[in-house]
Amino acid sequence: MTSAQTKLTQSIQAGLFDAAEPAPVLLQVVDLTFDEKVKAAVEAIKQQVREGRRLVVAWSGGKDSSVTLNLAFTALRDLIAKGHSVPALHVIHSNTGLENPVIEIYNKGQIRAIKAYAKTAGIETRVWVASPNLSNDYLVGLLSGRTIMSVGNNTKCQQMMKKSALDRIKRQVRAWIAEKDGVKAKDANLVSLIGTRFEESAQRAARMPAHCSSSRPMIKGCRFPWVNSSNAGRIWAKDACG
């Protein structure tokens, strides 16, 4: 064996045990226009309905969730116009009982408006309001001595007043859908639509998946690109224009 062949063999053998460094892949993210983002989100929702999923919108009364609800209504309205049969739209809302009275009155008015619009559009819509029951009310727990004040990063108040109530309502929605479809609750075919924006806060942006880009929808809890990558000005514009 020549010296050149020996060096080649040694190089190959060494290479078998070297950690291969992946070559960097550069992806160009195309920022869609206002209209393109709206169209992409609506089409993504329509596709979910075509595949047999039931829509559940998490609506807080704020601009982001209101835009998400608007997109859901738009998608269902478009499907109806094309002769498709659409399932009931479920809207989940949280009322902890601690909200500013003005905001609570506003949200109740918006719920009435949602129901009125749904009736006019011919879209069956059910609004589910989640509120803590007396046995799991944070303030009642404090006054009765069953719990202590949550401080710092402790989220007991949020868990008791909001999350627990929402989880209970979600189970009720799933059970309702399952009964209508004649299946077990665990087999209910539904998808939650959630409006979240990167610019809302640094913490929120850090928690959002890296692949939740402005170029395409991400369907898992349906965080749509038009919402997550849009600035507040565009959200307000869409909310106002409908």
From TrEMBL:
Residues 55-206 form the Phosphoadenosine phosphosulphate reductase domain. InterPro entries: PAPS_reduct_dom (IPR002500), Rossmann-like_a/b/a_fold (IPR014729), Sulfate_adenylyltrnsfr_sub2 (IPR050128). It comes from the Bacteria. Pfam families: PAPS_reduct. One of its GO terms (molecular function) is catalytic activity. The keyword Transmembrane does not apply. SUPFAM superfamilies: Adenine nucleotide alpha hydrolases-like. Keywords: Plasmid. Transmembrane segments: none annotated. PANTHER family: PHOSPHOADENOSINE PHOSPHOSULFATE REDUCTASE (PTHR43196:SF2), SULFATE ADENYLYLTRANSFERASE SUBUNIT 2 (PTHR43196). This is Phosphoadenosine phosphosulphate reductase domain-containing protein. The lineage of its organism: Bacteria, Pseudomonadati, Pseudomonadota, Gammaproteobacteria, Pseudomonadales.
